[in-house]
Design a protein that fits this description.
- By secondary structure, this protein is mainly beta.
- The protein is built from two helices and ten strands, in the order αββββαββββββ.
- The protein has an eight-stranded antiparallel β-barrel with strand order 1-3-4-5-6-7-8-10.
């Protein structure tokens, strides 16, 4: 199935980013109420995503530069659709460990709103890394 056939084709603007803990169902907005970002599905099967936290300062010191890295997520690669999920073969990424890997995301499309969630995994944004997932909502541009 292609992005066009599923309705994913095109550009999507981020409207929210939440994390959810599996044990408690508690949700937080680790990057603020208004994070920035886009998700793009191109006609040639490429997916690209860029997400940044709401409040970021220029990286003029080592500490601020590190904070910029911790409030950024960006990757791209060829994407395939399988039922309610899309799998991206990463060929360029902000996290070098992901290059060459496949990242699986689950999605729900409701009109012009796309909800994307990760699989349940240890959450690096929460002390102790409890099992959780990311839930991102986008609006079609």
């Amino acid at each position: 199935m292609t992005e066009r056939e599923t309705g994913l084709h095109g550009s999507w603007q981020l409207i929210s980013f939440n994390t959810e803990l599996k044990d408690s169902n508690a949700r937080t907005q680790p990057w603020g109420a208004n994070p920035n970002g886009y998700l793009i599905f191109s006609p040639d099967g490429r997916m690209m995503v860029l997400v940044t936290a709401q409040a970021r300062e220029p990286g003029i010191t080592d500490e601020k530069a590190a904070a910029l890295f911790r409030t950024l997520m960006a990757y791209t690669g060829q994407c395939r659709i399988e039922k309610d999920r899309f799998i991206t073969k990463i060929d360029s990424c902000w996290n070098e460990a992901w290059n060459g890997s496949e990242q699986e995301r689950f999605y729900k499309l409701d009109g012009d709103v796309l909800e994307v969630s990760t699989a349940w995994m240890p959450n690096p944004l929460v002390p102790g890394n409890p099992v959780g997932r990311g839930i991102l909502r986008f609006r079609r541009e």
